[in-house]
Amino acid sequence: MITLKSDLLQVFSLEKFGENIVVRAQLHEKGSMASQLGLMLRLARIQFLGLGFMLYLFGYLVAVLGGAWFDSGKFAFGYVILGLAQLSVSFSNDYFDRSSDTHSTKTAFSGGSKVLIEHPELIQPALKIAVALLSLSMICTIVFTFAHAYSSWFLVFGISGGLLGWFYSAPPLRLAYRGLGEVATTLAVGVLMPGIGYFTAAGLLDQAFLVLLFPLTCYAFFFILAVELPDIDSDRIAHKVNIPVKWGKKASLYLSGALAILGSVFLIIIHLSRVLDGYLDLSLIILLSVLPIVAAINALQQHSGRRNAYRQVNITMSAMIVFICAVDLVLLHQFLS
To answer: What is the 3-class SS of 233-253, one letter each residue?
Structure first.
């Protein structure tokens, strides 16, 4: 009888031990999945996704203020096209820029995410995700074009944006390594991101958007210089060809300041020419354009020292984000008034 009880206790203990092992394995698996998801979110670099959305919203609101109908379905579908392409760029840039990111210092806006350097087992999954996201963006562009009976130019516009982001660092073009990185980013940020918003709402790109390309491209150029400046040393080691590498930090900072001022000048000229009368009032936006100028002046005053470079990119990018958010709020207020 005693032996039977002892045997039963042993069996019970073994069962409990087995259950504990299973529970621990399940918890470990859940923890591992959560960790993988966190790493993928780091790769996605959500802060840039927010910037893309604000630029898209800017283009859409300008079109609506010009007479286009605000269609929430179109708005959401159009942004899916941009959002998928932009996410693809985050993954593909980290994949193809692994060698240069090895020598860089990560900030909120530069230096890469470092995920693939710290976790090489994610290198191939990151590439597959990048390809899948770009493919989905292209499919959505095709579906949107035919669903809304838009011209083939919308198809070209949407797909070229995704490809431009891909070939920024991907072979065989590798635009960032051939001195064309600033051109590619200026086109993507200053033309394609707000342009897809405008095109989605209006069904075409007309005079109102084309006129705004002057200040938009200035601010896009200003943006890419701010992102490149902290990575001068690592870009030089990786043989990237860009303005900070070729001209140096001080000259690049002066160029950034000139671009910020030129953006404001273009806004003033457009406002005084009254070419957008009946579309939107630029007076408050002109006042807000002081923000990038102040950020550029601050960067010039604090340009000495590597540590300052990392601080400067955060200040400059924060100023740009606040500027774009404020502009969108101004346009939204004009739309609702």
So the answer is: HHHHHCCCCCHHHHHCHHHHH
At 207, list the tokens: 């005079």
Q: Say what the pLDDT of residue 304 is.
A: 55
Quick check: bond before 172 cis, omega within 30? yes
Query: For residues 276 and 326, which has the higher predicted lDDT (pLDDT)?
Result: 326
Inform me whether the pLDDT recorded for 6 exceeds 70. no
pLDDT, residue 29, reads 45
What percentage of the chain reaches a pLDDT higher than 70? 85
Please give the structure tokens belonging to residue 333.
């207020």
Q: What is the 3-state secondary structure (H, E, C) of 103-140?
A: CCCCCCCCCCCCHHHHCHHHHHHHHHHHHHHHHHHHHH
Closest by Cα among 280, 82, 88 to 200: 82
Cα–Cα dist 27/128, whole Å: 27
Do 140 and 84 touch, CB atoms closer than 8 A?
yes
Task: Let me know: does 262 contact 218? Beta carbons within 8 Å.
Answer: yes
Half-sphere exposure of 72 (CA within 13 A, CB side): 0
Segments in 240-289 forming alpha helices (H): 243-247, 249-273, 283-288
Helix axes 290-301, 207-228, angle to 10 degrees: 20
